[in-house]
Amino acid sequence: MNIAMTVSYDGTSYYGFQTQPYGNTVQDILEAGIRSLTGEEELRITGSGRTDAGVHAHGQVFNFHTASRIPVERWALALNSRLPDDIVVRDAARVPDDFHARRSAKRKTYRYTIDCGKFPDVFARHYRFHHPTPLDRAAMREALRHFVGEHDFTSFASKHSTQPSHVRTIYEAELVEEGSVIHLFITGNGFLYNMVRIIAGTVILVGEGKMRPDAIPDILAAKDRNMAGPTAMAHGLTLWRVQYEEYAPEL
Amino acid sequence: MNIAMTVSYDGTSYYGFQTQPYGNTVQDILEAGIRSLTGEEELRITGSGRTDAGVHAHGQVFNFHTASRIPVERWALALNSRLPDDIVVRDAARVPDDFHARRSAKRKTYRYTIDCGKFPDVFARHYRFHHPTPLDRAAMREALRHFVGEHDFTSFASKHSTQPSHVRTIYEAELVEEGSVIHLFITGNGFLYNMVRIIAGTVILVGEGKMRPDAIPDILAAKDRNMAGPTAMAHGLTLWRVQYEEYAPEL
């Protein structure tokens, strides 16, 4: 049986989602929990994609194949009882055998959150980048609009990216205000390594008045990482949602 | 000079606000930070009251007397630079010499937060008590109304309370809904040891249908801790606000 799950996690304490040589990843913890329920020692899960150290997920999706007879409606509760409190499975569903959390993904949405309060909100300090001076939100919105569409995002990818193509499509790039807090929601068909963090770092530069919004098309055209802004801090980033044709979680 | 400050803290890692023999309290951390700025090794702060281990504060207030010449408008930023990220000073103001954070307090408001989602919100897990089954909110509101007014709260105080009088006045007791989350806001002229947590634990019993709302007057009249519900978990509780005639923070 192929099972898909939606999981939230606080990435503060982990070296990212994907298994690493030194352990302490969200994937390791999930696999250990699932194996302890099914007894399948070789079981591996497939995530929709990696998230970096310190990055969070509201709705990361992964799948795995199992011979277990645990009814699918009992999976979330059973697995949560074996997980630490910073990882919470919120949905589980049976999916077609050929469903693959990464390859089947149609749209992914990331949220980057900036707290412009004079002092940080202590209860959200691990989930927001604190920027104690005001940002020009209209200029940031204008900058975001330039990312929408199909572009070569070489300027907005880590130099360590190993992807054969840097062309991606951004469907939506919105700025949502919540008092002194700014959320950047960016939805696309896929993202390069560090891409959302570099977009956020660049849009923050625009908000600070240090870059004009209409510089974005030139930066895209240059295909040069040095033209874009800095990579924004990991802890402000959350993988918000992954959308599929075959799987829609009940949340 | 007498200085009052408003501080937020995440109480998860501390043994409460007030100095304890084994250290690791919010007061210890604040005093160490202030002393490192003023050089006054004997300096002590006075909080509006204690908060227990694991209890948080949105707006705890404390004051201290100092000979320091640091301008009051620079205090918050200077002190925050010496504090861990789970304690944030949000306001500092000069107050009259006889201002005393505990004795001058006119009203205190606590918030108790219950997450009735099927699964806990991982990003608020340290600040909400997770109760995965629904609660009867109308019954809880009715129960809360019985606490308003002047009462002897012996039934709603820890048996370890050493206060000479258990009579307190509750000005407001409100239930505020935020989706699957329920906040209980309780404002009074003062609170006994564990009083808000026992009120919350009792109101949750009512919400579960295990107690009738109109049992509250009888419980109050009994002056017997055994008649009330359990003491709700500490991590759902936040000291929300303390109000004074002489000090109103600019937040």
UniProtKB/TrEMBL annotation, chains A, B:
Binding positions for substrate per the UniProt entry: Y110
State the top-level EC class. Answer: isomerase
Instruction: Name the UniProt key words of this record, in alphabetical order.
Output: Isomerase, tRNA processing
Active site (record annotation):
D52 (nucleophile)
Instruction: Identify the EC number(s).
Output: 5.4.99.12
Catalysed reaction per UniProt? Answer: uridine(38/39/40) in tRNA = pseudouridine(38/39/40) in tRNA
Task: List, for all copies, the residue spans of the domain called Pseudouridine synthase I TruA alpha/beta.
Answer: 7-102, 143-245
Please name the NCBIfam families in this protein's record.
Answer: hisT_truA
Q: What does this protein do?
A: Formation of pseudouridine at positions 38, 39 and 40 in the anticodon stem and loop of transfer RNAs.
Q: Which family does it belong to?
A: Belongs to the tRNA pseudouridine synthase TruA family.
Quaternary structure annotation from Swiss-Prot or TrEMBL: Homodimer.
Q: What is this protein called?
A: tRNA pseudouridine synthase A
Q: Which organism is this protein's natural source?
A: Paenibacillus cisolokensis
Q: What is the lineage of its organism?
A: Bacteria, Bacillati, Bacillota, Bacilli, Bacillales
